[in-house]
Amino acid sequence: MTTLPPSLSPSRSQTTCASLLQELQIIWDEIGESDGERDKMLLELEQECLNIYRRKVEMTRKCKADLQNSLAQFESEIAKIVSSLGEHSFSFSRGKGTLKHQISYIRPVLEELRSKKKQRVKEFTETQSQIVKICAEIAGNGQAMTSSDPQVDERDLTVKKLGELKSHLQELQNEKIIRLQKVDSHINMIHELSVVMSIDFLKTVSGIHSSLIDPANGQSKSISNDTLAKLTGVVNSLQQEKQKRLQKLQCLGSTLIELWDLLDTPPDERKRFEHVTSLISLSVDEVLRQGSLGLDIIEQVELQVQSLNVLKASKMKELVLKRQNELEEIYRGVHIDVNSDAARQILINLIESDNVDLSNLLSSMDDQIAKAKQEALSRKDILDKVDKWKHASEEEKWLDDYEKDENRYSAGRGVHKNLKRAEKARILVSKLPSIVEHLTAKVKAWELEKGIPFLYDKASLLDMLEEYTVLRQAREDEKRRSREQKRLQEQFAAEQEALFGSRPKKPLAQTNAMVGTPTSRRVSTPSGKHGVSNLKERRETGRVNNVIPLNFVALPKDDPMSRGN
Which segments within 57-127 are labelled E, that is strand? Predict the structure, then answer.
């Protein structure tokens, strides 16, 4: 129970009241107030004292109620803040004691929660503001960025909700980065294309959005869907224009080269348009040189082509005859016979008649040249084998002449070269049947595919091969008969030698009958050495009765190399 202070204790109050009443009685006695008036005044005093006490009690009760209400409000606010912040683990008690004591205990807790809530609201506001700003940039609404801060729902300020907002913000920021990269990529592409085609870059980009050239007041580049769509459209349009211009210049460049070749244009004149002809082999992505696809370049090349076409018309007769020469050279190179004089006379008559379009005539001759080249290509493999066959035949003929020369082994300059050539010739000649067989099969396959005979300088190649085969077989038979006859003669000579003894033979001739084999000193072959040693043995044993001349040389009966054939 709370005690009153000493100044308000009942005993002291009564003493004070009694003293005042005595003083009041003295005053009344002096005034001469009646007892009734005195009783009335005392009653009023008593009533006023009671009223004062009542008012004080009411005030005290109201103060208590206010304290209780404040305490309840504090508790309610704490509960709301804890709920909105999601601090489910938070707990508190008002404590014990008087109401003021309880309020003094709970107030710091409430202030701390209020501060935490304020910080959380600030984080929500900043996050939502950035989200709204990026969304406005993506949507292309620049005014939304200058509006007031977004309203925050203070009923849900949980960490989970804040995390969701921040996650959404991160996604938007990533989206913004990607869009900025796309914008920069498109701008760089537009710049490259503009430089190559001599197009005003600033005018092109500023027409899409002003912020892409000079962002003002800290405003970033526009990343809206509309801006990206326009940038993409401009890039596609410029790429198509680049492709169109490149194809046009490539066509003009090819035409230039054709006209130069036709007109025998000197290299210095061609060099003036080297920057154009170099584009022929390039793809679109490889063309990066500044101004290489400008309209002024295209106009310049078009004028040059027109000028060369005029010159071409005046030299068409010369060009047609030049084409005829080229066609004849192709046919001559693959051994196809053509009537050159008749063809030239027909062309001259056509040109002089003025009844034919010379450009069409030239184009027709180009087609004939292309077909001739294709035909020449189809004959190339066979002609290569024909050359090999002719070379082998020539070596065969040389080998026959070489083997007929009795002095081929005589010592002298160039003998070792002829020996090596003969050895190679024998190897090549041994392959002749296979060469002819393969060549014949090739020709037959070609004729079966084309449906026409394979002519070689007006003659059928198959007939030539058959004739060569017959003649070669005849030569082989003749060689065989000659070797057999020689063998019989040598056998007969050996028998006569055994019966009557050896006779001196004529010395070797000192001249060489074979062309390309000069007269030289004798070179002994393995068979020759063998013959000399036999003679020495017979001389020593006394079985040789006849005197051997000093100039006697035993020659081999047959060329061991020719026996290999």
Answer: none
